[in-house]
């Protein structure tokens, strides 16, 4: 594999080890005396040099981009003044083509070089080829590292991982974004969030987490909305709101530190997002009501989507939220949203019953990446909340019974992995942060 570094290199008269390496042609460059190929195998890049007779025995298609092949030769240190990834190159003495790429392979190059434009539908149709590009591959590698860092952080904090169902018969985040389906003759949905199921895990398992898919029938074509996304969710037992906020700062910071502690991943992040810095703790905290004042105090004021000044009770829409976050340019824990604009399960603040013990984590460039809250503990209060939201509580018996059978002060959150990656990797849209994005009118490839 290209990543193997413990191979003796040749230099000058000193012979290097003869190796066999398989991969695909990423780029090729023709010179008079030699052909230079950049080989990729998912672990890195290797420069391969073909000279002498080897450069005469192929036709143009053999070395088209995408062609898979096995090469044999001696690994040498590159001469001073020449460049190659890692300072190594393979002096090829023999090769076997495994899968030639067609002559329009160049089209791949073009698609790949345009991969930054996630809106163009031909790019999305060609996502399987775009994924072969350096940029897409780097984002996927960072994403993999981040998922692992989350799993490690939770394990170190002794959270138990559970795997809630995707087919459900209850809503969590409002009826308007539910994907409904026929489940053997019964009405069911694709889950919007695993939160309610996580809550049922805490009595016997303590703090729990999951990394599962969530589904939202979002009718919005924004750069941060997907129909299917990866949701990192956790639920903490016997905590108060302050504990929850501190935990959020800790998990986000730890995951970034772990991810960047690996030099290979750190180099990818640096290339994708040169300005990225580990946020300093504690994060800036801001109550919803102060955010409303802040928006109105700007010159000119940052208005609602309807073009009006914000008043208490307004949802802070995506555009205003992002502008605020970009101007402040720091991670923000935005807290204490009004009851009416938040989900039924959120606990009210003691001091001000108009607001909830809720939090959104906002990051520059993306806005909201986390939504969380303390949960209502009392049965009667929860029943009231269902009534307020017009939800029939019957289907929720397994959830509401948590309050009957030994309730506890608890809270949790959900973090959109694609949004986290968009922030960390400086991506314009969440669409380039997943393998095959799903959003309105897009369900292929
Ligand atoms: O704010 P949300 O809707 O909160 C919940 O689902 C809670 N039940 C989570 C919990 O407490 N366990 O979603 C949480 C996060 C958002 O902050 C966002 O990062 C992401 O999920 N998210 C989306 N990401 C991509 N596309 C969408 N359509 C998303 N909707 C939410
Ligand atoms: Mg939210």
TrEMBL record:
The keyword Disulfide bond does not apply. Keywords: Aminoacyl-tRNA synthetase, ATP-binding, Coiled coil, Cytoplasm, Ligase, Nucleotide-binding, Protein biosynthesis. Residues 140-437 form the Aminoacyl-transfer RNA synthetases class-II family profile domain. GO terms for cellular component: cytoplasm. It catalyses: tRNA(Asn) + L-asparagine + ATP = L-asparaginyl-tRNA(Asn) + AMP + diphosphate + H(+). It is an enzyme of class 6 (ligase). It is found in: Cytoplasm. GO terms for molecular function: asparagine-tRNA ligase activity; ATP binding; nucleic acid binding. This is asparagine--tRNA ligase. It comes from Calycina marina. The chain holds residues 143 to 587 of 587 of the full protein.
